[in-house]
């Protein structure tokens, strides 16, 4: 039998067009799961300090939090060479969305941290909910009362010697923070910790185990270290645990490490947490830094013995909401196309 294609139905072309439209709609819906929405954020930073303190390495301190903080500086921590800076402020208020720049000389070592919930009188007397330093606005020679997230430096200026820097949770957590160099060069091509950002962007207060919580007025304002809360040599790397061979990561430090992979979580966490950079001209410290890793704070730390893997916490909730909205939009568009095709079929059937 000789088979020939039948004559084209008068409404075959509209039908094919509708089918093509539906296929394109389905393709768009499928691709939405592979192309997350892009969000552009514009932040205007204003320099608070009208007369930056002169020196060799500039440190820009930015407050990206939605509230005011009180940054603090302690000079001369550890065994590194130390330079005294008489005119450098050791504590000040930094309003939300603003920044301040200071300048450090060569051979300076010290630490920075942010204080929260502070109330100071005109003469600088008062106290803070977290990070307090002797009930004073200026923390001259006084470190942070834990828990406090620390940014630590050993600065050697632009003399080709290396700077060292890190973000530390060894004294607990109170604020997300990051530190990143500007310029500079890697110490070696094999060194993956050269001239890169150290960061803890997750809000650990939201997932802090109850035994570590610091509560003020019914709110969790800080997350203590296991050393501070449990007072054990094993957690404090003291006594028989005072060397890297005996002091290892605990269930608590591992839980924090899963949230902040580049931050120190115990005293000998150097391998993944100590960063170096040669001849960097500047560093930026950002409190409450924007980062996709901040979404990981939604993963629970309430049972630190049952650690949650990083891969299980990668999805950002805002991205999921956006993708859901895109998917919903495409489904609605597909339904409208289907209704349109049905109407065309009915009309063509009536006239042909």
TrEMBL record:
Keyword Disulfide bond included in the entry's annotation: yes
Presence of the UniProt keyword Protein transport in the record? no
* Regions that span the bilayer: none
Cite the Pfam families for this sequence.
Thaumatin (PF00314)
Record keywords: Disulfide bond
The cross-references to PANTHER family, in alphabetical order and at most eight, read: OS03G0233200 PROTEIN
**Stated family:** Belongs to the thaumatin family.
User: What is the name of this protein?
Assistant: Thaumatin-like protein
Query: What's the source species for this entry?
Result: Ceratopteris richardii
Organism lineage string: Eukaryota, Viridiplantae, Streptophyta, Embryophyta, Tracheophyta
